[in-house]
Amino acid sequence: MKIVILGGGPCGLGAAWRLAELGHEDWLLFEKGNQWGGLATSFQDEDGFWWDLGGHVLFSHYCYFDQVMDTLLGKKDGWIFHEREAWIRMQDRFIPYPLQNNIHRLPKEIFWECFKGIVDINKNNFERDPIHFGEWVDAIFGKGLAKWFLRPYNYKVWGYPPEQMDWSWVGDRVAPVDLKNILKNAVFNEDNLSWGPNSLFRFPLNGATGAIWKTLAKKLSQKKIHLNQEVARISVHDRKILFADGTTEEYDVLLSTIPLTSLVRMADLMSPFDSPPPLKHSSTHVIGLALKENPPDNLSTKCWIYFPENNCPFYRVTVFSNYSPNNVPDINKQWSLMCEVSESSVKKVDRKRVIEDVIEGALNTGLLSSRNEIDHTWYAFVEKGYPTPSLDRNRLLFPVLQHLEELGIYSRGRFGAWRYEVGNMDHSFMQGVEFVNHILVSGEELTLWYPQIVNSEHPSGKKR
Ligand SMILES: Cc1cc2nc3c(=O)[nH]c(=O)nc-3n(C[C@H](O)[C@H](O)[C@H](O)COP(=O)(O)OP(=O)(O)OC[C@H]3O[C@@H](n4cnc5c(N)ncnc54)[C@H](O)[C@@H]3O)c2cc1C
Q1: What is the value of pTM for the model shown?
Q2: I need a labelling partner for 235 at 20 to 30 A (CA). Which of 136, 141, 317, 422 fits?
Q3: 42-62+70-96+193-211+281-387, which class in CATH?
Q4: CA-to-CA distance for 8 and 37, rounded, in angstroms?
Q5: Which residues form the pocket of ligand 1, taking CB atoms under 6 Å from any ligand atom?
Q6: How far is the CA of 91 from the centre of ligand 1 (A)?
């Protein structure tokens, strides 16, 4: 069976890794770009600063994924291990994440509004599931937290109003509200910091996130993997790929990790699948601020910060030089911030001004005290950044995925499968691995079809 993989991001490379591991010989991988890693790639600018396409934190829900990471960069030496320090910047102060556990840090009137909202939800008896993400937010967090943080923050991240989004993607990503805990933290003036699946994480010592995927690609047979090969058309009935340079390749089974909407546009599918489904997504502007001297004390240990307010365009800023000292040329006299701004069909961004707006936002929110701190900036535009879990997503998505499978095409990965809830690096990598298991040894593709299982804690307390 000849397996062809399209795309050299974590999903395509995960499939290639597993094929090599199982000793299957007949496969090839094609990537249109000139380096490995897809959205999880990294760039070194002319001045020697490293940048990711938005702050990448290595979550892992899987033992297998952890083992591969150990094999690639070593168990210890190739990594820097971090205890997450995530914060929220609002009301002119830093509050530890998750906000719901630390609302005693807010000004008294807002604390009371949030607390009252939480007490009110505990009185409610829900007779039906929420119909959209907005209703879910109000029902789970109460009106106060929704008004001051969850609604404005989520709009800034997703670029769509919560009424246009589903809530079933949430899984283990949002900390539950625990009234007793909130009260205890308020009474004893304590903070809760270490909630969630990524409270401990590791980051490559050298070469930022992209180093993982470059290293993996180096370990594969170089005859089978090809950069700078862009797919132009797919003839689904002859099972043949036409590349932009005019060459062709045949396949028995195809794993496509390119965005599903692009795949449909390239393939000669029959009606009703001949035009791309109207799936929603948002784009991401990534603005790197390369800075002189050292970070101020209040940023010197932070990992990333969320920004719900409208005094800045970004929703998240990563103190990227805290992830690895090698992300800047000289950690003794340089540091860096990486800012993310979303854009969608309903949330427009003035692209000509975005860097300037980010700098103003950094000054407004106290990240910078003066423009003179900036040595230079770095910019990347990611057209497909977040696959939106819109209300009609599953209804649009599942029939196309199923139809493609009947034709021997498996569309997988962050935008191949368009499922945000399983769209991180570990998930995408495992979608590739599980595709191979499915094709060669009839394994279940658990990640794609059962996100709620892979994202929940294993009964043993260990990873899957
Ligand atoms: C702003 C942002 C922040 C993120 N933060 C995190 C994080 O903190 N932690 C985490 O785990 N994940 C994070 N991610 C997600 C992570 O980047 C993805 O999980 C991962 O890159 C998805 O891998 P993939 O292989 O499915 O898709 P991609 O990485 O998109 O790879 C698809 C590949 O297909 C190639 N391709 C496209 N069209 C063609 C064509 N016509 N011919 C040939 N090749 C083609 C592309 O060039 C690309 O390399 C983040 C993503 C973004 C955008």
Answers
A1: 0.96
A2: 422
A3: alpha beta
A4: 6
A5: 6-12, 30-33, 38-40, 53-57, 59, 230-231, 257-258, 262, 284, 340, 382, 385, 413-416, 423-426, 428
A6: 34
